[in-house]
């Protein structure tokens, strides 16, 4: 009896091994049949920037070159910024990556702040967007602040809570990091731009509201509308279908619009986004049109003009003031919750649609924040309390 059971067991094991071997062979055949994916080649000669022009590695810095900078020719430095201490927070060190094109002086260079979304690291965000390659071409620095897993398990920014223990502290940390980089490397303080994806776009909006004197323009990709969410639950509701209140009313409650210095904004969103509903993009466009003085308190057009065109699967709407484009909305047909024109191999990025990085820089390069622009901000909680 024992001998028969042994034979049965051995026979079953042989069949299992044979099935796995067959499956492996078939997988290898399919892989061989696929066309080889072209791999970008690094430049034959890469000029190395002079040591005095590059961030010097200290005790907390790392010069390890990740995939994010694999084919870019500049310098990638990981470091920590000691952010202002926030009440009730144990973590006040903001991790970040700084990318600087090679062969260029940092003095007078523009800076683009890139805020990642949930479940992303800064290496993945840099790799998926390919913003560093654009920095090489046009000569600007890029900084990637990184949310700590100790603050949020999925690295989400608390964009919906402007309190000093949540999103307000995160926005202040990013603003402090920008100030530190500008002072240390003598970057052009009038050409600082901030861009974000999803939750990163939410934090970028909060920065635009609370620190308009720091940034010359903002770019929001797949981001939520501003002003209504106060908790994780209400944030999910806004993401699913936009705000329940009028977008203009929410902006007026958040800041003194008459004293606000304006904030040029580029908004990019996929029409097939099932994580953050496209209605959010429409509401963001209205909110920034209000912040730039194009719309009045009722949401009616006060000055300027609005132009719209459809081309190559993208609906573009421009809000112009004095002949200058201050808000641009791009709705990308067929794009889900992913960075337009990005790397398909990286989660939350898609090759579908126009290159979002190129769109952003084309928008940013014509914007400049003059030194006399005074801040006009008020915490969102205070505004809500005024309404109550």
Comma- or semicolon-separated keywords:
single chain; alpha/beta; 10 helices; 10 strands; 33% helix; globular; disordered C terminus; Esterase_phb; Plant_Biomass_Hydrol_Est
Describe the structure.
- The chain is α/β, with parallel strands linked by helices and 388 residues long.
- It has a single domain, classed as Rossmann fold (3-Layer(aba) Sandwich).
- The chain is built from ten helices and ten strands.
- Strands 1-2-4-3-5-6-7-10-9-8 form a ten-stranded mixed β-sheet, sandwiched between helices.
- Helix 4 crosses helix 5 and helix 7 packs across helix 8.
- The N terminus and C terminus are likely disordered.
- Pfam families: Esterase_PHB (PF10503).
- Keywords: Hydrolase, Signal.
- One of its GO terms (molecular function) is hydrolase activity.
- One of its GO terms (cellular component) is extracellular region.
- This is Esterase.
Brief synopsis:
The longest helix is centred in the N-terminal third of the chain and has 32 residues, at 2-33. With 388 residues, this protein is of the alpha/beta class. The radius of gyration is 24 Å and the shape is globular.
